[in-house]
Write a structure and sequence with these properties.
5-stranded parallel beta sheet, 18 helices, single chain, 3-stranded parallel beta sheet
Length: 406
C-alpha cells in the first residue's frame, strides 16, 4: 500500500469505469486468456479490506469504483487474492490498530459468508484445489504492519487463529518490531529485540515473515533469523528506482532467494516507475516530518497544522505519473535474471495506490495483459505459471511445514 494523498474521488471512479473487462483485455491474446484461466494466479497484496471498511461495497458483485471484485477477478483468472489487513503508523501511535485490524478481518469474513459460492477464506495452501471448485476466489489474509499485535507476543497466535498468514513487519513508520524503509531516522538499526521474538513466534505458528516496507537492515536480519524462507509480499527492485529504500536492492533480493523465499513484484507506479517512486519516497519523508512539526505545535499549546492543505499542495506540486505496463514487465525480467524464475511472483497492491497503476494493469481483470506481455518477451508458459502463483504456493507450503516440524 502506498497511501499517497487520495486524489479526486470522481476522477478515480471515472478512471475505474474506463477499465472494465472489455477494455482491459483488449491487449490480451487468446493464448494469454487461456493461460490466465488455467493457471493458479496468486496475488499477495490487495487492499480491499481497508477500503471496504471505509466505504462499503458488495465485492461479490460488480463494483466499478474498486480494482478488486468477483466478476473482474473471474474475468482476469485471479484465484487466490491475499486481502491486506492494513493499519497505519498513526493508528499504531493512537492505539487503534488492533481494533482496525479486527474490523477488516470481520469485513472479509462477512463477504465470504454473504457469497459462499463466490468466495472462501483460505488458511492453507493444501486447501487451494478443493476450495477453488465451483469458481470461487480464495481470500487468505495478510497483515500489513505488525502494529496490531502491540507489544504482546500472544497476539500472533490470536491473529493466526483469525486467519492471518503473513505479517509485514512494519509500514510507513518505525514500530515496536522493526524500522521502516520510509523513515530517515531509524530506531532499532533493523529489528528490535521484540522483533526478533516476533520472527521466532511467526516461524513457530507458520505465519510468513514479510519484509516489504522495512529497512535494509531489518530485511537482512529477518532473513538471517528466520528458520524458514521469508517473502516480500509487494516489493519492486531498486535497480530501477535508485535511492528508494522501499524497493529491494539486488543484494537483499538475492538473500531472500538464497533462503528459498520469493519476491512478489507490485504493479503500482509508485514502485515500478522511477519518477513516481521518487515522489513516493519524498511524500513519506515530508509527511512524517509534517506530522512531527504538527505534534510539536500541539504539545506547545498551539493549533495543529492544516494537513488537508498540506496534502492539496503536495498533489498540485506532484501530478500523477502515467506509466506503461512495460515498467512492470521490466521488473519481472530483471528479477528473473537476478534471482531466478523460482523466486519471483506478483503482489499487485490493487486498491492500495489510489488508482496509480500502469496502462493495461488497472484492475484484477487485467492479468491476461500481464501474461501476454510475458509471453511476448519469451517467457515460457511453465515459467509464467511459477510467477503467477506456483512459487508463492510452494514457499507458503514450506513455511507451513516448518511450523509443523517445530
Amino acid at each position: 500500500m502506498s497511501r499517497l494523498p487520495r486524489r479526486n474521488a470522481l476522477a478515480f471512479a471515472l478512471a475505474a469505469l474506463s477499465a472494465l473487462p472489455a477494455a482491459a483485455l483488449a491487449q490480451a491474446t487468446d493464448a494469454a486468456r487461456a493461460l490466465a484461466a488455467d493457471a493458479v494466479i496468486v496475488d499477495t497484496h490487495i487492499d480491499a479490506p481497508g477500503v471496504l471498511v471505509s466505504r462499503w461495497a458488495d465485492l461479490g458483485e460488480a463494483s466499478p469504483d474498486r480494482e478488486f471484485d468477483y466478476p473482474r477477478a473471474r474475468e482476469g483468472g485471479l484465484d487466490v487474492a491475499f486481502m491486506s489487513i492494513y493499519t497505519s503508523a498513526r493508528q499504531d501511535e493512537s492505539g487503534t490498530a488492533w481494533q482496525a485490524a479486527n474490523a477488516q478481518i470481520d469485513a472479509i469474513e462477512a463477504l465470504a459468508a454473504r457469497h459462499p459460492d463466490r468466495f472462501a477464506i483460505l488458511t492453507s495452501p493444501r486447501d487451494v484445489e478443493r476450495l477453488l471448485e465451483g469458481g470461487r476466489v480464495l481470500l487468505p489474509l495478510g497483515m500489513e504492519n505488525g502494529a496490531p499485535i502491540g507489544d504482546d507476543l500472544s497476539q500472533l497466535a490470536f491473529f493466526h487463529q483469525r486467519g492471518v498468514r503473513y505479517i509485514t513487519l512494519a509500514h510507513s513508520g518505525n514500530n515496536r518490531i522493526a524500522d521502516s524503509s520510509y523513515t530517515v531516522e531509524k530506531r532499532w538499526k533493523g529489528l528490535s529485540p521484540f522483533g526478533r521474538e516476533v520472527i521466532a513466534e511467526m516461524n513457530r505458528l507458520g505465519i510468513m515473515v514479510d519484509v516489504s516496507h522495512v529497512s535494509d537492515d531489518a530485511v537482512r536480519q529477518a532473513v538471517e533469523l528466520s528458520r524458514v524462507p521469508v517473502i516480500a509480499s509487494h516489493s519492486a527492485l531498486r535497480h530501477f528506482t535508485p535511492d528508494f529504500e522501499r524497493n529491494l536492492s539486488d543484494e537483499l533480493a538475492k538473500l531472500i532467494a538464497a533462503k528459498g523465499g520469493v519476491v512478489q513484484i507490485p504493479f503500482g507506479t509508485a514502485f515500478v516507475n522511477p519518477q513516481a517512486a521518487a515522489n513516493t519516497r519524498d511524500w513519506f519523508r515530508e509527511s512524517l516530518a509534517f506530522d512531527r512539526r504538527s505534534a510539536e505545535r500541539v504539545a506547545a499549546g498551539e493549533p495543529a497544522l492544516d494537513r488537508k492543505a498540506f496534502e492539496a499542495q503536495w498533489e498540485k506540486d506532484h501530478p500523477k505519473v502515467e506509466a506503461p505496463i512495460s515498467d512492470v514487465l521490466d521488473q519481472i525480467d530483471y528479477a528473473v535474471k537476478l534471482i531466478g524464475v523460482d523466486h519471483v511472483g506478483i503482489g499487485s497492491d490493487f486498491d492500495g495506490v489510489d488508482g496509480e497503476l500502469p496502462e493495461g494493469l488497472r484492475t484484477v481483470a487485467d492479468f491476461p495483459n500481464f501474461i501476454a506481455g510475458l509471453q511476448a518477451r519469451g517467457h515460457s508458459d511453465e515459467d509464467i505459471r511459477k510467477i503467477l502463483g506456483g512459487n508463492l504456493l510452494r514457499v507458503w507450503a514450506e513455511i507451513e511445514a516448518g511450523a509443523e516440524q517445530h
